[in-house]
Amino acid sequence: MKYHILISFLILLIGCNNKQPIALPIDSDQENTTKPNIIIILTDDQGYADVGFNGCKDIPTPNIDRIANEGVKFTSGYVTYPVCGPSRAGLITGRYQSRFGFGRNPICDPDEPTFGLPLSEKTLATVLKSNGYKSIALGKWHLGTHETLHPLKRGFDEFFGFLSGGHQYFPELWTLNDISEIRSQFDGYNTKLLKNNTRIEEKEYLTDALSREAVTYIQENKDHPFFMYLAYNAPHTPMQATKKYLDRFPNIKDSKRKTYAAMISAVDDGVGTILDELHRLNLEENTLIFFLSDNGGPEEHNASDNGYLRGGKSDLFEGGIRVPFALQWKGHIPSGITYEKPISSLDIFATAVEVSNTDMTNNKKLDGVNLIPYVTHQKKDAPHDYLFWRKFDSQQYAVRDGNTHSKLILSKKTKGLYHLNDDIGEQNNLRQQELSEYETLNNLRKEWEKELIPPIFKPLKDHEQHFKNRNQKLNN
Ligand code: CA
């Protein structure tokens, strides 16, 4: 008997001194590691340098940093387009969006079935559903406002958020009962929020409401594999934050930067509640969490900071397409690592279907790769030989060589070749010296472009004329 007490005491002692938490059996009925949960946390217009894990000094992001610290930080994480809509279309399909005509931002018109993600494409939610996953889209949709393009028609079981490309943050500004009431492009910012197909009376600051719903969803689905697409609209304009968050930044004098900091801080709090809930429910080892921004920061507009990168939102220089990017999957990938080879938001889809063993036989070819073997160093080569970008309207292109740090930039004005390893700010155009390298990349770009189609909907810049015609029709 005494021995039993002694042994129990020793086990207790060892347990207490062990810095690693003792592995506990998963207490939920989740089909655990064969179908891990997938969470994508997407911010909107956040600068590359505006997270702690990329060196941000004036805006602490301790919770977002937890994802990088407990997983991997990608220093060369790219999105597929430097503005919101096309970037999201690439992410949610795992395919270059110009393959299916989403090569520009759409006009917000709920009567137009082609102004958004074409029905020929499957979202990650649709594909994971075929493998038994439940799913929710939270926040900004921006993949079409027509009823046939609604998240619930695109594979998601639940939706909480708004359909337009941006939104007001304070509930008192949500004055429209439905998107059918809009009479201009930016009226879409003023709608009441949608819970599935129903307009609701939400009382909280938008970022807080999205975080609250995310935590509730995790609680309600803890026993079932789920996919959560949490698309915060922060820190996209309009610059709006509550006193609670503004008061955290007494030392930031520039009022726009202060509001931006407050908006990021609200997101960071929300990320903290999500991570805490996953921990409490013992789901961390059964959940992949991706964090990224949908494009680079528009520094002038929202006081974001892309650090040493050139340009920002809407540019194909690094500041437009290289974003804060991290992945956590506790117990499956090493913690605290930095991965420097170029990866893409396209890889999220490919990673999700691989880790969940989702059958892709009847699906179109993906453009991304499963990142897990790369971050665990089972694969040592580059995830992508090349990454490509096209802005159709301005005939701008970029090609990033995944192996050599070379990058081509092509527009009507510029023909550039940059070596990013010693010129991350893209200041030193080497095209004249490295003409053959430039030509090689440009030829690859031409080959890639043969697989693309022009945009299937008219450009956002036509929104005023579009609404003039639309409103005339509605008035007749
Ligand atoms: Ca954006």
Task: List strands and helices in order, with pairings.
Blueprint: H1 2-17, E1 37-43, H2 62-69, E2 72-74, E3 77-78, H3 84-93, H4 124-129, E4 134-140, E5 158-162, E6 194-195, E7 198-199, H5 206-220, E8 226-231, H6 243-246, H7 255-280, E9 287-293, H8 299-302, H9 318-321, E10 325-328, E11 337-339, E12 343-344, H10 346-355, H11 372-375, E13 386-391, E14 396-401, E15 406-410, E16 415-419, H12 435-449, H13 463-475
The protein binds calcium ion.
Uncertain stretches of 5 or more adjacent residues: 1-29
Structural class: alpha/beta
**Ligand kinds:** calcium ion
Major sheet = 10 strands, mixed
Distance between the termini: 92 Å
Total number of helices = 13
Q: What does the radius of gyration come to?
A: 23 Å
Query: What order do the helices and strands follow?
Result: HEHEEHHEEEEHEHHEHHEEEHHEEEEHH
Q: Residue share in helices? A: 25-40%
- The amount of beta strand, in percent, is 15-25%
What's the pLDDT, averaged over the residues?
Answer: 94
Oligomer: single chain
Description:
The protein is built from 13 helices and 16 strands. Mean pLDDT is 94; it is low at 1-29. The longest helix is centred in the middle third of the chain and has 26 residues, at 255-280. The chain is globular and about 60 Å long. It has helices at 2-17, 62-69, 84-93, 124-129, 206-220, 243-246, 255-280, 299-302, 318-321, 346-355, 372-375, 435-449, 463-475; strands spanning 37-43, 72-74, 77-78, 134-140, 158-162, 194-195, 198-199, 226-231, 287-293, 325-328, 337-339, 343-344, 386-391, 396-401, 406-410, 415-419. With 476 residues, the protein is of the alpha/beta class. Strand 13 and strand 14 form a beta hairpin. The strands form three sheets. The chain has a ten-stranded mixed sheet. Helix content is 28%, strand content 15%. The structure holds calcium ion (CA). Calcium ion is lined by residues 44-45, 84, 236, 294-295.
